[in-house]
Amino acid sequence: MALTRQEINRRSREKLGLKTKAFTLDADTIALFEQLAAHTGNSQAAILRDAMRDYAAKHGITPTQ
């Protein structure tokens, strides 16, 4: 039986160790988020990942990975 695109994507995310997380943000934060991604050429996921790592380092927290 052929896998659906949804099943292929789910298996790929699991294999890569990726999980979905949803946030509700105000319009100004979303605009800044999108502007940063466009300006740097990085994906929004990369912007969030880098910001989280910088924030953790600022507070003396070492990422687990």
Could you say which overall geometry the principal axes of the C-alpha atoms support? extended
Spell the H/E element sequence.
Answer: HHH
Total of DSSP H or I helical runs spanning 4+ residues: 3
Structural class: mainly alpha
Helix content: 55-70%
Q: Count the beta strands.
A: 0
Largest sheet: none
The quaternary structure here is single chain
Termini separation: 36 Å
Rg, nearest Å: 16 Å
Measured by DSSP, the beta-strand proportion falls in under 5%
**Poorly predicted ranges:** none
Overall average pLDDT: 94
TL;DR of this structure?
The chain is an all-alpha fold and 65 residues long. The chain is built from three helices and no strands.
Annotate the secondary structure layout:
Blueprint: H1 5-16, H2 27-40, H3 44-58
Could you characterize the architecture of this molecule?
The chain is mostly helical and 65 residues long. It contains three helices and no strands. The chain has helices at 5-16, 27-40, 44-58. Helix 2 (27-40) crosses helix 3 (44-58). The longest helix is centred in the last third of the chain and has 15 residues, at 44-58. The relative contact order is 0.07. The mean pLDDT is 94.
